[in-house]
Amino acid sequence: NGDDFCAGRFNTGGARPNEALEVREFSDHVFRCYGLLRRSEAPVIAQVQGRALGFGFALAAAADITICADTAQFQVPEFNHNIMPTMVMSSMIDRVPLKALMYNVWTSQMISPERALAIGAVSDVVPAAELADKVAALVKRLSDSARPAVHAVKEYGVNAQPIDMSKAVHFARSLHALVNSSSQLKRK
After folding, report:
1. How far apart are CA 185 and CA 187, in angstroms?
2. 146 has which bridge partners?
3. In the chain, which ranges are continuous DSSP H helix?
4. 147-174 pLDDT, tens per residue?
């Protein structure tokens, strides 16, 4: 299974144990996936209606916006299976406060959507019956918005957080002037 593979316990059919390079090559696919989510020019929206465990929780946290049903559940179960959870943690390190992340990793507790919202792993919790409509409305809103503005918000959100405040403000000023003066920006 995938957990065994990530932990280096998979077997390629022979008697030899897996080599670190094989495990790294496999895990690089996961890290590239997280990178693609972050580098996408378009906003990445996740919809969670059931259980999001491990990689599923990581994808939900890594998305730009995550809307989940009030019946959803989240968990980082890797620690229960003697699997180093740093792959999952790397998707959440800039999204979830460190104390909450460490607690969720070490306890491996299933958490509610309300708890996921409180720690910043998801953006909104809605009744399960309204989930698809809520996501569709958000997709329509972003699709109907001026593309340069949508992309600039994503660019700023991804790049401004790790820089110091004065540089973040300068970056915001530059993007604001650039995008708001664009002929592509829809005026209402």
Report:
1. 6
2. none
3. 2-6, 20-39, 55-62, 86-92, 98-107, 113-118, 131-144, 147-160, 165-180
4. 999 999 999 988 888 888 888 888 888 8
